[in-house]
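Run log, item B.
One chain of 395 residues. Sequence copied directly from the ordering sheet:
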Amino acid sequence: MTCAFADPKEWLLEIPTTVKSQLWQQSQVYASPNSRWRAYINQICLHGFLTRVETEYALQAVVWKSFADTPAFWEYVNGTAVLLNQKRVVLIPSEAIDDSQLEVPQEWVDIPSWKADFYLAVQVTPDGDWVRFWGYTTHQELKTQAEYDSVDKTYCIDAEDFTKDLNAFWMAFQFCREEDIQAVISALPEISTTQAENMLQQLSRSGATFSRLEIPFTSWGALLDKERWRQRLYQQFPRNRQMQLSPMVNLSAWLQDIYENSWQVIETFFYSNSSSLAFNFRSNTGLNAASIKRAKAIDLGTEADAQKVIMLVALIPEAKQQLGIRVQLHPFDDEYLPLNIKLVLLSDAAEIIQEVTSRLQDNYIQLKLFAGELGESFSVQVILDDYQIIEKFII
């Protein structure tokens, strides 16, 4: 990523074409063109911010909600929250050429568990080649100086009322007290299971594109605040997703001989499938060196044209609570993998760490051995043509 400074008070960052392609591919999990594009520009914005603070300021930024949970956010709400030295920063991207104001969705301001310390204004060029971080405001300023739009449920603050100087942001970030940047807001009402189910049914019947505008904010905010209902809301609408997300797999539980039902001993597959597959399993030294091995069958595509493969995960306990991890992909009932199938390792922030693509007559492919520590999470993506699936893991 290259940086240019048309104005020394701003950040102007170039996004490489390869990164744009990867992020666009990852955004295809969303239901509508609008939500896919919203996810895309948010991921571009996030990539630029993480790269900037880690390379220029040597700070470790953590996405507030892991990638496993972000689909339910970006399906409805623009913006991404990042934790930076225990302060929460919300990035608000926009493609608007006019930078006379910043519009912040009400969720990031009035849901107590979502509210942030700082809100950064980010302009993304229509082609996604550049991102421009050009100003910031605080929660206190949004509540006292911004105009609330009850139709769009956003807080709109004029550029003249917030700080257009990213150098000042770093000073405020380091030295401002919480009481100076956070306004006091009311708690949202608790909703019962019955109330939540009724709201979900109402939203499902309406089939609304803009679900967040269909019910009063206090009810919507209370629903969205709870992960259980947020995921239900995300999952209940019919959608033509080309990506499937699987439940998080806890690898630490594997060390205690506790496994998810879908992850089987490898003998389940090579005893019931071809002899060549059995040979591949037995002869691979990378897997035989591991003390814990599990495999899962994965369907790629619709029932009519689905191709099935087998993902293997092997764990090698190491010193200092680290795990060596090996991931492989094997054919299910054929001698070779489909041509050009990809196996991709993603970080918690959905950035590609490594990937491998099958060639003609590959009987398996594998990621390079990598290590993880207790509490770390990552994802493994399998891509074939226009279809992809993500398996999420936490150590």
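Observations after the first pass:
- Residues 33-56 form the longest helix (24 residues).
- The first strand starts at residue 3 and ends at 4.
Flagged for discussion on Thursday.
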